[in-house]
């Protein structure tokens, strides 16, 4: 995000200089020479479903890691992101003598992981896995692929839902259910399944929960909240894959790992992984399946972060902030009495703590004085190209 997005700054404060957030999207075929390389992903095989959590908690069974994997593997998939590539050589043939991709072809550029949550074929993954995609394919556990359609995504919590394009009478190979992430404790055994580098599909790793209720600086002006920290090995391509408890329930979705940027020879992999808590995912998935989107609050301003707060650069005519009297040049220093600071970013307070229709009280510095502006939040419009 940047200042071309309402309520979005173009810089973010960094809390942990020694580590950076590394999304686990496996980027493939980005160079021109690789665009024409073979891809190792293969081919085949309604209504809104309620995503229900099973009653058992993470340590309530005697299942082995292999048992958990056997239960969840049929529902765990690889997601292939296809985009339009417009590169060409001096003769309009991509420099390959007429072989390979031509201008405007849709080709695979990246992959991630995902999991099937209902019999209708809804697949949950990360929003960053499907970002920019023109088309999508999903590789099933048995190696076959099937086309999929994007139902909707929420960039803030990094959740997306795809719909498998099932043929008449075709069924899904398996489903997984959401567990209660509030029951997860540090020390619980967890199992991660995903497709490292888009090649090693349905790779199973295990570890323990290290901590809960973590958050990470996204570098886009807000903290990604609602994270489980764990040490099961995860790699590029694991993004969107499930983190499971020993009952085989999804208690998280792998999204990132920490990279040590102070290592002697550049960045160094760590064994610190992060997954979005299932309880933060479930309601978003239900919204997306039902409406195709997640309703997020909206002020109608463009902002720039400062050391003192959030500077208002412009105000959308007729938007909620304009109606309430917010002005360009204002400095927002607090929301509902909570100061905006490194631990309470503006975006987090606005997006994650409120709903469209809520009325918020903004503390604003204006012309050397302080005023309070009461704003009734609108609904954030869909992003446009």
Polypeptide structure, described:
- By secondary structure, this protein is mainly β.
- It has 2 domains: 16-294, Thrombin, subunit H; 297-379, Pdz3 Domain (Roll).
- The chain contains 6 helices and 22 strands.
- A 6-stranded antiparallel beta barrel has the order 9-10-11-14-13-12. The chain has a 6-stranded antiparallel barrel with strand order 3-4-5-8-7-6. Strands 16, 17, 18, 19, 20 and 21 form a 6-stranded antiparallel β-sheet that branches.
- The longest helix is centred in the last third of the chain and has 14 residues, at 278-291.
- The radius of gyration is 22 Å and the shape is globular.
How is the secondary structure organized here?
Layout lengths: L18 E5 L2 E2 L4 H4 L29 H8 L3 E10 L19 E12 L5 E4 L1 H4 L4 E5 L5 E10 L4 E6 L24 E6 L8 E15 L5 E8 L11 E3 L5 E11 L7 E10 H14 L5 E2 L2 E5 L4 E6 L4 H5 L6 E5 L2 E2 L6 H7 L6 E8 L2 E8 L1 E2 L6
Antiparallel strand pairs: 1-13, 2-4, 3-4, 3-6, 4-5, 5-8, 6-7, 7-8, 9-10, 9-12, 10-11, 11-14, 12-13, 13-14, 15-22, 16-17, 17-18, 18-19, 18-20, 20-21
Helix content: 10-25%
Strand/helix succession: EEHHEEEHEEEEEEEEEHEEEHEEHEEE
Quote the average pLDDT: 83
How does CATH name the architecture of the largest domain?
Answer: Beta Barrel
Number of domains: 2
Structural class: mainly beta
CA-based shape: globular
Enumerate the strands of the largest sheet in spatial order, edge to edge or round the barrel. Answer: 9-10-11-14-13-12
Q: Predict the CATH topology of the largest domain.
A: Thrombin, subunit H
Oligomer: single chain
In total, how many beta strands? 22
- How much of the sequence lies in strands comes to 35-45%
Q: What is the terminal separation in angstroms? A: 13 Å
